[in-house]
Design a protein that fits this description.
Helix content is about 40%, strand content about 15%. By secondary structure, it is an alpha/beta fold. Bound molecules: beta-D-mannopyranose.
Length: about 375
């Protein structure tokens, strides 16, 4: 009798503990689960990422022009036999209610590819190049008029903040972003976890939210307005917020903190790092920045990534293994994301290019992770 009582109590207790731990698992948001996954993966190396990977390539126009035979195609897949671990897509144009984004990719395809990549075990990230709210109606003029790169007026951020002349319009823009994010669900209706990376390269002055285009307070106001809208008003807990300024070469704690949204608002820090000038300058700047950023990430418990990077048109076919890889090997980065492969401007590999050989070497490295290695 006594034994039965103990057994009963033990079983009841075990069942309660199991229920509690299951509840704890269920209660973790999609973005928290993604952060944990990234923390685990970074122990093994860094993931390879590519912008617009399944949309078009160096030699093909892609499904976005309506050729369904090219569904599933990818320059990275064609080069090494595996998809990138991370795929990036851009929301630019969603704010206008456009059917296609700024690079002519239909939002329906972005929707489908983003979910497909998540469902095949990959990780996805979204950036946003919204048009200039003051001049967007003049679109169709000469680039950059009306675009994210239209920096003629330095009051845009001020004008989209509460009480600004464009605030009501900007609320609609945020709503359209939210409406799109709300559709990003798996077949079993689970929200897809997304590394969300707004207001990027903000230490440069080429976007309307850039360094010389707004004060520190205005920038924070812009960040907080979008974040509070999406997380509080819309309740999205599947967004992992990423803060990614541009390659700087001279970060100090003080300068970095000027526009850093805050530890409670950011889970991943990183930067966009392209080699536009000499290899020496690039290496020096990137090493300096990654030294600062990895230290900051460690002290503040943040994930670290090279949120965009590349050498335009791979003018040096051994750049990945000779320049980039030795630097990335030294820092605890979660991923690097090569920018898009477009015929006039490509940053990734393609089988017929001389850089394909170098990319295969990168693929062979044990600490460079592609899709099959992170599933
Ligand atoms: C830039 C360039 C542009 C493109 C934009 C958004 O870096 O690649 O051609 O429109 O990103 O993808």
């Amino acid at each position: 009798m006594k034994n039965t009582f103990f057994l009963f109590t033990y079983l009841l207790f075990s069942a309660m503990m199991a229920a509690c731990s299951q509840k704890a698992v269920v209660e973790k948001s999609q973005s928290e689960q993604l952060a944990e996954r990234l923390q685990t993966l970074v122990q093994r190396g860094y993931m390879m990422g590519h912008q617009d990977d399944p949309m078009y390539g160096v030699t093909w126009e892609g499904t976005y022009r309506g050729d369904s035979a090219e569904l599933g195609r990818s320059d990275v897949l064609a080069t090494v036999g595996d998809y990138p671990a991370v795929m990036g897509f851009d929301l630019g144009g969603i704010e206008m209610g456009d059917q296609k984004n700024l690079d002519s990719v239909p939002f329906t395809r972005i929707h489908d590819e983003l979910i497909a990549h998540h469902e095949r075990g990959g990780i996805v990230t979204l950036s946003w190049h919204p048009r200039n709210p003051l001049t967007d109606s003049q679109q169709g003029g000469t680039f950059p008029q009306g675009s994210a790169w239209d920096v003629t007026d330095t009051t845009v951020v001020k004008n989209v903040l509460p009480e600004g002349s464009q605030h009501e319009k900007f609320k609609l823009w945020m709503q359209r972003v939210g409406d799109f994010i709300a559709t990003l669900k798996t077949q079993d209706r689970q929200p897809v976890p997304i590394i969300f990376r707004p207001w990027h390269e903000n230490n440069g002055s080429w976007f309307w939210w850039g360094q010389r285009l707004c004060t520190d307070d205005e920038f924070r106001g812009l960040w907080n307005m979008l974040q509070d809208y999406l997380t509080e008003d819309r309740g999205f807990d599947n967004l992992l917020w990423s803060y990614s300024p541009n390659l700087d070469g001279g970060w100090t704690e003080e300068r970095f903190m000027q526009r850093y949204p805050g530890n409670d608002r950011v889970t991943l820090i990183g930067e966009d790092a392209y080699q536009w000038g000499t290899e020496e300058d690039f290496k020096a700047a990137l090493n300096a920045d990654l030294t600062f950023l990895s230290d900051f990430a460690k002290k503040n418990g943040k994930l670290l990534a090279m949120t965009e990077c590349g050498l335009k048109n791979m003018t040096d076919s051994t750049w990945w293994t000779r320049v980039l890889q030795p630097i990335m090997d030294q820092y605890p980065i979660s991923y690097f994301l090569l920018w898009r492969n477009y015929k006039e401007e490509y940053f990734g590999p393609s089988p017929e290019l001389p850089c394909a050989t170098d990319f295969k070497k990168l693929y062979d490295a044990n600490n460079v992770l592609f899709l099959k290695e992170i599933k």
